[in-house]
Amino acid sequence: MIASFSTDTYQDRLPPVQLEPEQPVRSPRREISRTAKTLQWVLISFAALFFFCLCAVVGMGVAWVRSYLDAMPKIPYLENYRPEIPSRFLDSQGNLIHEILGAGGVNRQQVTLEELPPNLINAVVALEDKRFYKHPGIDPIRIPKAFYVN
User: Fold this and answer.
1) Residues near 91 by Cβ (< 8 Å), separated by ≥ 6?
2) Using H for helix, E for strand and C for coil, what is the string for 25-90?
3) Higher pLDDT, 120 or 105
4) d(CA 123, CA 117)
5) Cα(144)–Cα(149) distance, rounded to whole angstroms?
6) Which of 26, 89, 117, 124 has its CA 20 to 30 A from that of 138?
């Protein structure tokens, strides 16, 4: 038995296919309407304006803090600060004979915190900061009020 091979291929038996001309491949992005483009432009403009205003406010705040810090006394002055205390002349028993005030005419006497009466401390705290014992040292409620008043 002799095997016979056909030279016919499967592709030869298929009918010819008409190919359509290639169309350009469209981007998967959808078309954006004119209104949406305008809205997008407006939002980007407002975001840029907000960012610009934020930078301006931060810049003015930095300039204000810097000018405030420049007006403060320098550190060496504070390290060597000596308040004017009057000179006191005492006799041999410790009685005051005469007292000479400093150049500014200020009559000061240094005392420790323990020597101050508790009512004086409470009066100063009540006068200066009623919420002294309710905040950690900086009162976040009073800072905006201080900006408004000053």
Assistant:
1) 97
2) CCCCCCCCCHHHHHHHHHHHHHHHHHHHHHHHHHHHHHHHHHHHHHHCCCHHHHHCCCCCCCEEEE
3) 120
4) 10
5) 9
6) 117
The per-residue pLDDT for range 28-81, each reduced to its tens digit, is 666 677 888 889 999 999 999 999 999 999 999 999 999 888 888 777 777 777
Cβ neighbour number for residue 77 with a 10 Å cutoff: 9
Residue corresponding to tokens 């060597």: 80
Q: In sequence order, which residues have a C-beta less than 8 Å from that of residue 52 and are 6 or more positions away?
A: none
Transcribe 81-133 into DSSP letters.
Answer: ------EEEE-TTS-EEEEE--TT--------GGGS-HHHHHHHHHHH-TTGG
Residues linked to residue 88 through DSSP beta bridges, in sequence order: 99
Cβ atoms of 96 and 89 closer than 8 Å = yes
Question: What percent of the chain is predicted at pLDDT more than 90?
Answer: 21
- C-alpha 137/C-alpha 91 separation (Å) is 46
